[in-house]
Design brief:
seven-stranded mixed sheet, five-stranded antiparallel sheet, 33% helix, 288 residues, 23% strand, 2 domains
Length: 288
Amino acid sequence: MGTLPDHAIVVPVKGGPLAKSRLDLPDGARRTLAEAFARDTLAAASSALPEALVLVVTSDPGVRLGVTTDGFRVVADPGGGLDAAVAAGFAAATALGAESASVLLADHPALRPEELLAALTAARGRGPVLVPDAEGTGTALLHLPLVDDTGQPVAVPRTRFGPGSAAAHEALGWERLEVHAPGLRADVDDPASFADAIGLGVGSHTRRALARATLPGVQATIHRVPGDEGGSALLDDGRVVAVPVAALVDSGLLHLRVGQRVSLELDDAGTAATRVWIVGIGPGETIR
């Protein structure tokens, strides 16, 4: 789609049993979705910049096998957390001759290639820059030159991922860059952010993972907390449907939260829920 000569995209992937542990899902489904998020992120990155060097930093054998099969280069994660993984990616990019590099975490299932390309184009020619997440407090993307105008290596500033990383990166010398890129800025950390990503439209790997993870009934994510007049839910196909109070009363579920995964039965028009349940909770449901 685009070209950015001698550019590397560093994508740390945690993998393993603790991947995306804040998602309110069974372990198997959660790990499958975390892998799908990573694959959709990598697919968008490679489509945006087919000539770029994509470096996946991981220590997980399953992730290593999957991304190698997909044709990406793997950098060993040295341990010590996300910042250490990013530093290893930068070092590998420099050793392989990259003149600039970006950091993209592997949790952007709604990322569009054109969004990433537009953000990198806007960042080109600047010093170290960060693109904040949708809330403005986290970091969606980092970009920096690895060499100066004469081709000499430049000092790579430290990173500080974690809560409040956008401000932390600014304090370390990264310049904030605001871009209109909803999918890029929608990183999935919890059920609410997952619901936001689904609303934007997730990639094919995540759609397939959702289909495999679903239970009987139409699968959805609570979109608006039900009040006296009901609420709404976001179906996995992107449609928003009403969740009337009656459907909740009949199901015994009166305290749902935004981002919570539920199963629905819909009315004939397919616009409103007639029954809402979670496996093991509600009439006719047993723990299994």
